């Protein structure tokens, strides 16, 4: 490597933070899962949403007990009828989620037209009702969602 291409500054500082300046993350209000500041209970917004997803997934899998498509009881996941990216206000709505095994979940998400037909045949009118509801629902309150699905992380 030629000297003109060599970095003049190191990628990381070799200086360590003195012990007197280290702060306990619990005291500083840091997220319980990552180094970002906690804003929702003990988590940052991203981690709070992930914890809420995990809790809702456990609830849905216990509620449905079987795959919505094939009926198996193994490898269940939580599948959204209307995608959580396109409809963020429906992300935690219990009417918008069903339990699906991993293979069926991949099949449904990989074929949007088939997924729409499948859920329309299973629950006629539900998708149009959910689309209308998505326009009227307020923004998701993660504190309420986390409390609804339990205290254990």
- Looking across the biggest beta sheet, what order are the strands in? 1-2
Distance N to C terminus: 49 Å
Number of helices: 6
H and E string: HHEEHHHH
Q: Specify the overall morphology.
A: globular
Q: Look at the structure and give the mean pLDDT.
A: 85
Structure characterization notes:
- The protein is mainly α and 153 residues long.
- The protein has helices at residues 25-28, 45-64, 102-110, 112-122, 126-136, 142-148, and strands at 76-80, 97-101.
- The protein has a two-stranded antiparallel ribbon with strand order 1-2.
- α2 (45-64) runs parallel beside α6 (142-148).
Secondary structure layout plus pairing:
Layout: H1 25-28, H2 45-64, E1 76-80, E2 97-101, H3 102-110, H4 112-122, H5 126-136, H6 142-148
Antiparallel strand pairs: 1-2
Helix pairs in contact: 2-6
Structure keywords:
153 residues, mainly alpha, two-stranded antiparallel sheet, 6 helices
Provide a short characterization of the protein structure.
With 153 residues, this protein is mainly alpha-helical. The protein has 6 helices and 2 strands.
